[in-house]
Amino acid sequence: MVFDYADRIFTIGEELEEALRFRPGGRALQLRVGVADAVPKAIAYLLLESALAMEDPIRIVCREGKLDVLLADLAIHRLDIIIADSPMPPNVDVRGYHHLLGECDTSFFATAELARRYKKGFPQSLDGAPFLMPGEDAAVRPRLLRWFEKERIRPQIAGEFDDGALLLAFGDAGAGIFAAPAAIAAQIKKQYGLVEIGKTDAVREQFYAISVERRLTHPAVLAIQSAARDNLIVGSSRAGN
């Protein structure tokens, strides 16, 4: 009975906290979001900017880090959601739910100089080409490797990067060709002046919202979900642990 009362008190406390954070009256809503470091910054912004555009004022508290660290913060309610490039890991002792926001094709980018050499004959032109590989934490990495193997492409791996922003910086400097979600191709070409040398639908990039809720209810999170429908091909949701 004591444990039942304790659970109930804890639940009431959570409900009160939620009510205070969502309460109208001019005070900004707060969205505490974790962004897995494998998620491209432009994708994170593409989704989060919709929350900033809400009619009600909102304050975003954004944290970036490894997915396992962010999940620990989610479990103790330091975060409302996590934006990740993979679903809930099966071996994590955190009760949570992943919601597939959407997915898109993968595009390949290079400087104009590299594009002149490797754009023609894509994707076979990537064989032997300098390539910048995402790190082991990136969900797209094994998909890229399987696609290379299927197409019998053996690029020259010029570097591996856990940090997507660092990978992009090396790509912008001409160190190699790199892959990125097709959903942000326009931003990459405009901001960095890079060339899209090809695209494949055989390597899909997926993005998830991970929360402790089976159903998403935070107004800002619902805005993010709506933005994903506009910018990505939307999928479904399913439970994690």
TrEMBL record:
Stored Gene3D superfamilies: 3.40.190.290
Annotated keywords: Activator
Zinc-finger recorded as keyword: no
Listed SUPFAM superfamilies: Periplasmic binding protein-like II
Domain LysR substrate-binding, chain residue ranges per copy: 26-229
Keyword Chaperone: no
Pfam families per record: LysR_substrate
Highest taxon in the source lineage: Bacteria
Example GO molecular function: DNA-binding transcription factor activity
One GO term (biological process): regulation of DNA-templated transcription initiation
Name of this protein: Transcriptional activator protein NhaR
Native species: Herbaspirillum frisingense
